[in-house]
Amino acid sequence: xxxxxxxxxxxxxPAIRAAALAAAAVATxxxxxxxxxxxxxxxxxxxxxxxxxxxxxxxxxxxLDDHGRFEAGDALSRGGDGALLHGAWDxxxxxxxxxxxxxxxxxxxxxxxxxxxxxxxxxxxYVAGRGAGVTVYLAxxxxxxxxxxxxxxxxxxxxxxxxxxxxxxxxxxxxGRFFPVFGLRTADHTAYVRRYLGFGLLEEPxxxxxxxxxxxxxxxxxxxxxxxxxxxxxxxxxxxxxxAYERRLLDETAAVGAHARVATTAxxxxxxxxVTGKRWFADAGLLVQAELDLQRQRxxxxxxxxxxxxxxxxxxxxxxxxxxxxxxxxxxQPDLGLRSSRDAFEVDLQYFPRAHLEVHLLGxxxxxxxxxxxxxxxxxxxxxxxx
Amino acid sequence: MTSSRAVAPAPRDGPSSGxxxxxxxxPVTVAAALAAAACADxxxDRPARWAYVHAxxxxxxxxxxxxxxxxxATAGLDLSSATGAYTFLPGRICGEPVGPGSPPRSYVEPxxxxxxxxxxxxxxxxxxxxxxxxxxxxxxxQLVERWIEEGAPCD
Lengths: 387, 155
Hints:
The structure holds two protein chains of two kinds.
Chain A: H1 6-9, H2 14-29, H3 66-74, E1 95-110, E2 113-131, E3 134-142, H4 153-156, E4 157-158, E5 162-166, E6 171-177, H5 192-195, E7 206-213, E8 217-225, E9 239-249, E10 254-264, E11 268-281, E12 286-299, E13 304-320, E14 323-333, E15 342-351, E16 357-368, E17 376-386
Antiparallel strand pairs in A: 1-2, 1-17, 2-3, 3-4, 3-5, 5-6, 6-7, 7-8, 8-9, 9-10, 10-11, 11-12, 12-13, 13-14, 14-15, 15-16, 16-17
Chain B: H1 26-37, H2 50-62, H3 82-88, H4 117-123, H5 138-149
């Protein structure tokens, strides 16, 4: 996404550049939609052991803080100024602004069916006010989708996250709409450990969370309810409690975690427990990470229950500054008592040519019920710009 | 148009089939379940009842926030509640007899999986695949077929 042709950039004043970028952001916002999480492969490998080293949210994702913006240009991409609007305008210290704009295109192939995809993936703006340990945060955008027809613009307005947080030090209290800290929290909402465990698009619940984000460990406890008012967004149907714990080891080159959740709806009760592990091999430039979740779903209206399993494992190789090559496995078993597994293998290339820019290429083969001879294929290219 | 797969009801147990054993043996159950995960191929003893089909299949696979939820209601379908989804799929009001004022059947023809549009969509057979990104596991589709074959009751 070239916003300013290189040859003309020198003639643009900072004010014009800021206005142009803002206009482009708003224009795209009016056309698009959807979601953002953190990049777990940047955890540990970037030298940052806590999501909150770079993000305002304890869970990561969304707005970057000053350190995160500096790292985005200085260490994680091929260069550039990671500050808001490329440094064209510095907001006052109490104000943080940002946004994510994402477009995607690709091909899907399963059996005799082929489908081309080209769609706006995300258009969100973020604003946060900070002072005296209090953060007031709002993310707003339009619901998007890969397929037509889309509803009218006014019906697509959504705010995935809005909360008030008090964090005078390592401990925090957060109230509003946001996901619990749970698992690896990959940016890919189609990852099986997200989509099948209730962390899909727009499924952020309303709740209250407390936590401790320390040097060597962090812990989070989150109680949540379904959306209280329909127009506030889709959200999940369940109410529940989620807890997560992570400990950093080996001079912050490794982390292990555990998480659990109890959730209930009018139709079922679900108990989920899982573990995560990460290891960054600095000499090899290799990050490996994994998550394993076991879930029991009990149906309240019928005398039945089932065990489910979700798992993810991946390895990411830092080829050179700003360029990652990754490979990962996904597994989902909706009922461990039946042959009903879904597996996927993927390869991805993530490139940050400059601060604010990202190109992501993904290839994924997925198979049902151990039928590895007839996989479905997906090739997806994403272009991402953040303010 | 015929179904891409013959409907073959699987053997099943009654409601007290032992699938739901609360108690203190859950660590053993977990270990056994994990050990069997890679090679599980047991008979499908799940109840072909709407309460199960909706909670186990329709709600998690179709009523996701961005698709057939209350807010998004893609294609005009809100499948988030069991009673609401039932009205859309067989075109009946749950708990009420079929009458002149009943909504027209469109997605499910009770007793006839081979004439139910829902089955074709779940298989992507001549219709747009649903869910559109990846199909449901075959055993889930077979359970939906079994529920339809048994008259698609709202129980």
